[in-house]
Target: Peroxidase
Amino acid sequence: MPKITTQSQADTSIQMVPLFLLLLHITTVSVADLRPGFYSETCPKAESIVRDVMKKALIREPRSLASVMRFQFHDCFVNGCDASMLLDDTPTMLGEKLALANINSLRSYEVVDEVKEALEKVCAGVVSCADIIIMASRDAVALTGGPDWGVRLGRLDSLGASQEDSNNIMPSPRSNASYLIDLFQKYNLSVKDLVALSGSHSIGQGRCFSIMFRLYNQSGTGRPDPAIEPKFREKLDKLCPLTVDQNMTGDLDATPVIFDNQYFKDLVSGRGFLNSDQTLFTFPQTRKFVELYSKDQDQFFKDFVEGMLKMGDLQSNQPGEIRRKCRVVNGLQPNIFGKLRREREDSYNVLRRNSRFC
Model:
């Protein structure tokens, strides 16, 4: 597990691009450099531009906001909040998009592309893709009925990505609360942070792929997870029969387009979609927070914001840049590795079927 810089931690490593790509204006950033209003002089309309694009995305496809919101978690836990997850594969680098936790799961990258394009028209080369993820994640929550908050900005974009680190770090839908607690503690995130941030599943959908073992072979028993409420299990059985296309999706809670505390109410009633969700209620150390948030939405919102801010402070302190396009480091041309990416995606789909993420 690589170390990540938080308010009290330091240093990690990241897979770097070749030296000839380390062009001008490469620098480093620390947590102390992050602050609200970072672009107030250099790009004063930055935050409003991001929100405008997110509003359009909500109208076009509501599910896209849930996808973009989860970018912050998938980015920040892998070598800090540096937009490494947005990089496409190159002949010399395996990016994180095809990591086991991301392939066929993360989507709506084009929303970030739209945000970046809009920002580049107004203030070229100023706003980082890493900061776009932080702002867009906040906006996804606020625009769907959740809390709004001031974000700390000033991050740089990574010069590379590490599919291996993503595979080693990101949890699977099989994860239990004990494993998740240990993982979050490595980033100075508490049990409370874990449960509150899991509330991000208040919006969006999950795939049948992620719950087949819960329905038909929990813990190798050949039986369904006994924690699933019987009528809810019947609903899931119809949604995800053994013969289903496992990319079929189901709602993560009963109000999948509204950010609220329904997610926690569902966990209390045994109607959590993912194993990694329901385990938060069955495990004593996390259960008390699930019960609290199921009754007190204001407290959930408060703790969720606190957790998002803490997660947004994860930094690698490695050299970075402001990418002109979020999918490639400066100096590389976008869209020239499409065939390579498709070939790798086919290979990883095969690998995934036999992985711990099944």
